[in-house]
Design a protein that fits this description.
The complex is a heterodimer. Helices cover 31% and strands 19% of the residues of chain A. By secondary structure, chain A is of the alpha/beta class. Chain A is globular, with a radius of gyration of 22 Å. Classes of the chains: A alpha/beta, B mainly alpha.
Chain lengths: 379, 48
């Protein structure tokens, strides 16, 4: 192809630098907009605190994140719901937000951290083509917007990655980028990098608040075996089995996976090993995270509708029941319903540790009416 | 500390690229340099 031969001069250099500045201004604004926190509207009774209240090592850093606590009239146990460990797994943090905006705690205490790795919400994963935001149109015409972030801490706050990430204290070796993955950082290090300090802060909260049962909410690609699954530490395996059987009986099947003892740094392993909590991690199936996906956009994040996954399902290659789609309402409903089932089972195991939460929509309601019917309007 | 060194290296390379742009006599090579500068400056400013 013939290239236009234009002479380069000082003037052309200045012109091109001006263009570069313009591009930097436009894209810079776009990137910086993701540092604005998502708006949430806690239900009456929630007290807002910050994670740094439990560990000062993240105070005044972008890692500090809101923690919401609601205590019921009757004494009982304490339950923690953690969303946003991986901000590219939206059903996890939307489920946490639903609890935050609707829960009325009758017995015990409910603690919600909707955006666990706050810094990972401030950027996208490179080369994935992910949307920056997901939006829900509410019945009153207003729009609720949530950031669609990355799996890992923003490298602006933790860089460079090592060639090999050596997990402390186990010595397990992982790819260098996993050092920015909150769910490989537990039990955390008080003087470590920012992701390790977030992990340490969450463990401090679990220890100091004497949490009885804790959930870490995730999503995974449909071709990954640990999907539509409950992963339980030994301490919570009995409770997990009870919940899984109950859910199965109601037509909401979950695989129950014991937390592997030799896979270190994950919440379901380290929370249970380093505290008295019953640790649970849950996964739903999200096609936008999968490698088989086609067009990658906000619609895919919300509907999970993808023709390549439809083909993969017909070939029997997926680990979730997938007909035409996998909407976020279904994925969120699975998390929400599973948590409510766990709370019910917790009451069977120990009356004194039981936690009763009201005003949470049921499985069919969420699927039929959509997430937008249960988020509060900000207008 | 390592972040400061990293930013220092990114700033140094940005300045070298700008310097080369003004020495360059081919417009398209200047344009290529422009594309190199953008991500480097974003890194120096800790925007991306």
């Amino acid at each position: 192809m013939h290239k236009m031969n234009i002479k380069g001069t000082r003037k052309t250099a200045i012109f091109l630098l001006t263009v570069a500045l313009l591009v930097m201004y436009v894209t810079g604004r776009n990137f910086l907009a993701m540092r604005q926190p998502d708006v949430v509207i806690p239900a009456d009774g929630f007290e807002k605190r910050m994670l740094s209240d439990w560990f000062q090592g993240i105070h005044n850093t972008p890692a500090d994140t809101p923690v919401f606590i609601q205590e019921g009239q009757e004494p009982g146990g304490t339950v923690l719901i953690l969303g946003g460990t991986h901000p590219n797994e939206p059903a996890g943090y939307i489920a946490a937000v639903l609890f935050l905006e609707r829960a009325q705690v009758q017995k015990g205490r409910l603690i919600v951290i909707p955006f666990a790795n706050n810094t990972a919400f401030t950027h996208n994963s490179p080369q994935e083509g992910y949307p920056q935001y997901i939006r829900f149109l509410l019945p009153d015409g207003s729009v609720r917007t949530f950031r669609y972030g990355s799996r890992d801490t923003n490298p602006v706050y933790q860089w460079p990655d090592p060639d090999i990430y050596v997990h402390e204290p186990s010595g397990q070796r992982l790819a260098g980028s996993e050092m920015r993955n909150l769910n490989r950082a537990y039990p955390g290090q008080p003087h470590g990098v920012i992701t390790q300090r977030i992990a340490f802060a969450i463990l401090e909260l679990i220890r100091k608040e004497d949490i009885d049962l804790a959930f870490d909410l995730h999503e995974a690609s449909p071709e990954y075996p640990v999907v539509n699954a409950i992963v339980a530490h030994e301490k919570s395996l009995e409770l997990g089995a009870m919940a899984a059987m109950d859910l199965e009986g109601r037509g909401i099947p979950f695989r129950l996976e014991p937390s592997p003892r030799n896979l270190r740094g994950l919440s379901h392993r380290e929370w249970g090993d380093h505290t008295d909590v019953m640790a649970i991690l849950m996964e739903t199936g999200n096609p936008i995270q999968g490698r088989l996906r086609g067009r990658t956009n906000e619609a895919l994040a919300l509907t999970g509708k993808d023709k390549f996954y439809q083909k993969a399902a017909k070939l029997g290659s997926l680990f979730i029941p997938y007909e035409d789609d996998q909407p976020i309402a279904l994925r969120t409903a699975r998390h929400v319903t599973a948590i409510m089932t766990f709370l019910e089972m917790l009451g069977f195991i120990s009356e004194e540790k039981s936690v009763i939460v009201n005003n949470i929509p049921d499985y069919n309601d969420i699927i039929d009416k959509g997430i937008e019917a249960f988020l509060l309007s900000i207008s | 500390m390592i972040m400061l060194i990293y930013r220092g290296i990114a700033l140094f390379i940005s300045l070298v690229v700008v310097h080369c742009m003004f020495q360059e006599e081919e417009f398209w090579k200047q344009a290529s340099a422009t594309m190199v500068i953008i991500p480097l400056v974003m890194r120096v400013l800790l925007i991306k």
